[in-house]
Structures are given as C-alpha cells and as structure tokens.
Amino acid sequence: MLSEGKKAPLFSLPDSDGNKISLKNYLGEKIVLYFYPKDMTSGCTQEACDFKDSYPDFKKLNTTVVGVSVDPVARHKKFSEKYDLPFILLSDEDKKVVEKYGVWTEKSMYGKKYMGIVRTTFIIDENGIILKIFPKVKVNGHVGEIINFLGEK
User: Fold this and answer.
1) Dihedral sign from CA coordinates of 33, 41, 21, 62
2) What backbone phi and psi angles, to 5 degrees, belong to 63?
3) Looking at the whole model, is its pTM more than 0.85?
C-alpha cells in the first residue's frame, strides 16, 4: 500500500496521442496524478472539467495535472478533444499502474461485484515523493481541496 512520504512508483504510459510519458519526465515539478474510472461518464467528465476550469491556478502553483484511467488511447483522445482538456490523460489498458498505485479494486453496484478504479488523487512533489493521497474522492469540491492543499505547501 502506498503512503504519504514514500516514493511514488515510476511508470511510463501512452498519452492520448500515443506518446510514452514517464513519471520521471515530471521530476522537478509538483504533479497532481488523478485516477478516474472512465472517460465520458458524468462524474469523470465533471472532474476533468473542474481540473480544466482550475488549470490556471495549477499553473500558478507550478503543478502539472495528469489523469489516468484504463480507457484506450483513442477514447482518451476523443474525451480530451471533446472537452478541450489542457492536461495529459494517460492510458493504462494493461492495468499495471493502477495496480501499483492500489486503485484497481473490487467495487459493487446494485449488488453486482466487478473490478474498477476507485477515484483517487496523489500529489507528488518535485522529488517524486507522495505528499498527499486523497482516497475515494467525491467529485464535488475535490479540485478546490487540492488547490487549497497546494497553496499551503
């Protein structure tokens, strides 16, 4: 299990254009790494648009926003273009990164069990250390919560 104060697991995943992006590309800056269940769903769209609306605040705080789900690259591209997202979405189709970060878990809906991503956000510092983990995120107000946390750091 990952915890605050520990090194964030390194990874390399394709973005919505198919380019490999590595966590080490971001060493030297803060990162908001958010894991979300599925492109084009109401909660995930709201979360992405909240990040988009607050993107200037993240830039002022010298922080990069990166979203990760298990959706394929093409779906990320469509989602990103439809909502004009100014940040990177990464595709983890083989689920290696979501498992490393402990966000791929059994979920339940209407009594039916299935595997999926539990909406979780990690704030990683310039040295690759996890500063804060927001587990089981509720979308409303979450981006403001992150900005408040970063403003205190």
Assistant:
1) negative
2) -125, 135
3) yes
CA distances 24 to 42, 55, 87, 132, 135, Å, are 31, 21, 17, 18, 23
- The residues near 27 (Cβ < 8 Å, ≥ 6 apart) are 126, 127, 128
Q: How far is CA 16 from the centre of its chain?
A: 14
* Structural domains for the chain: 12-152 (3.40.30.10)
Question: How far is Cα 107 from Cα 99, in angstroms, rounded to an integer?
Answer: 14
Paired with 89 in beta bridges are: 67
Which positions ≥6 away from 50 have C-beta within 8 Å? Answer: 139, 142, 143
Residues 21, 32, 44, 48: which is the catalytic one? 44
49 tagged catalytic? no
Mean pLDDT by 10 residues, the chain (153 residues): 93 96 93 97 94 96 96 96 97 97 91 93 97 95 95 79
The number of beta carbons lying within 10 Å of the beta carbon of residue 66 is: 22
